[in-house]
């Protein structure tokens, strides 16, 4: 940590190299900072960026006794990510979520390119932070992890322990158990699909074993992994359709449809028709029955995997589950007329 009042003294390895008139890489290669008696970094032991106290370094370089740093904690001490997490008794990855709180973002400062927070502010946040419910998240609150960050934050937990449970993810990230279960399902299924892509001879169960996933935790993932593979095989076709619809002027971009898995063993995709004069608000592709129109841009899919009946703006288009782009456009034009 950077002790109170000593921020202006902090130096990086690049600063130390410049002080001795050498390039940073030469300084690292020579290991000057690892010489006997050289002052220890003020950054946390596992920090990727080492920071040093200038007074201590200057004393060492002149052969003077290295002065000790203050040992008494102060509210103005600056804590890095790992130190702040330790202050709260949570993991650094949990801190990555908590640090988005307005109180912490307001008082975050970078020193040597590293984020730091005053000890006193961390304590203020701790005092204001709701206690954890039994499920591992603050009482009467929603998930603490934004949906778009969930997989990125869960993936390292699965990397560290392939057998990690939803309960462990819930405790670590402060999310609902169902949210944690869904994240693990998606990650495991995607990774199993990756392995099966690389070695088509593998079954889903064999891929799960190779990745170290316990059988009791991957029953749904083995089904979904096969659906993920089918979605990947359908991707070129869906991209071709998106391009054709864009050329027709029915979409403002040629972005490929968004793939969904409303049930573990089903692949669907949605495409918003946001051009000037589209024949329908949106299209849905379902691997079971091909394309159909949808009446809502915001919610084109029906709940679950239910196939809606024709009528009231819903029309099934083309022949088979993968009609050519031309056939689809013809069917859309006909239904619009």
Largest beta sheet: what is the strand line-up?
6-7-8-9-10
Given the helix and strand composition, which structural class is it?
A: alpha+beta
Radius of gyration: 28 Å
The first-to-last residue Cα distance is: 70 Å
In short:
The chain is α+β, with helices and mostly antiparallel strands and 337 residues long.
Describe this entry's structure for a reader.
The chain has 337 residues and is an alpha+beta fold. It is 44% helix and 11% strand. It has a 5-stranded antiparallel beta sheet with strand order 6-7-8-9-10. Strands 3-5-4 form a 3-stranded antiparallel beta sheet. Strand 8 and strand 9 form a beta hairpin. Helix 4 crosses helix 5 (92-98), helix 9 crosses helix 10 (177-198) and helix 10 packs across helix 12. The model is unreliable at 130-142 (pLDDT under 50).
Primary descriptors:
10 strands; alpha+beta; 337 residues; elongated
What's the layout of helices and strands?
Layout: E1 10-12, H1 13-19, H2 24-30, E2 51-53, H3 54-62, E3 78-79, H4 81-88, H5 92-98, H6 102-107, E4 109-111, E5 114-118, H7 119-128, H8 147-160, H9 166-173, H10 177-198, H11 204-211, H12 219-247, E6 258-260, E7 268-272, E8 282-286, E9 290-294, E10 316-317, H13 325-336
Antiparallel strand pairs: 1-2, 3-5, 4-5, 6-7, 7-8, 8-9, 9-10
Helix pairs in contact: 1-2, 4-5, 8-10, 9-10, 10-11, 10-12, 12-13
């Amino acid at each position: 940590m950077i002790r109170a009042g000593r921020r202006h003294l902090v130096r990086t390895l690049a600063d130390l190299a410049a002080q001795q008139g050498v390039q940073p890489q030469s300084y690292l290669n020579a290991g000057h900072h690892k010489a006997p008696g050289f002052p220890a970094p003020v950054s946390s032991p596992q920090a990727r960026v080492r920071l040093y106290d200038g007074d201590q370094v200057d004393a060492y370089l002149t052969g003077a006794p290295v002065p000790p740093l203050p040992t008494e904690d102060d509210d103005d001490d600056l804590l890095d990510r790992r130190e702040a997490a330790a202050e709260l008794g949570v993991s650094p990855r949990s801190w990555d979520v908590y640090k988005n709180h307005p109180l912490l973002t307001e008082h975050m400062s970078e020193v040597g390119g590293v984020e730091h927070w005053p000890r006193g502010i961390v304590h203020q946040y701790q005092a204001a932070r709701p206690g954890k419910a039994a499920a591992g998240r603050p009482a009467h609150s929603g998930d603490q992890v934004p949906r778009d960050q969930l997989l990125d934050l869960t993936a390292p937990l699965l990397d560290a322990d392939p057998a990690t449970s939803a309960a462990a993810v819930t405790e670590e990230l402060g999310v609902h158990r169902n949210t944690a279960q869904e994240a693990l399902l998606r990650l495991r299924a995607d990774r199993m699909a990756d392995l099966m892509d690389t070695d088509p001879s593998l079954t889903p169960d064999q891929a799960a074993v190779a990745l170290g996933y316990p059988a009791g935790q991957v029953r749904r993932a083995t089904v979904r992994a096969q659906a993920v593979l089918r979605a990947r095989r359908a991707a070129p076709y869906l991209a071709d359709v998106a391009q054709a619809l864009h050329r027709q002027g029915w979409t403002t971009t040629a972005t490929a449809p968004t793939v969904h898995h409303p049930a573990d063993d089903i692949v669907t995709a949605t495409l918003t028709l946001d051009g000037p004069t589209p024949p329908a608000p949106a299209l849905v592709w379902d691997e079971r029955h091909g394309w159909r129109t949808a009446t809502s841009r915001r919610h084109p899919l029906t709940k679950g995997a239910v196939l809606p009946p024709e009528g009231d703006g819903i029309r099934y288009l083309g022949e088979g589950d993968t009609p050519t782009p031309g056939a689809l456009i013809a069917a859309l034009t006909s239904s619009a007329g």
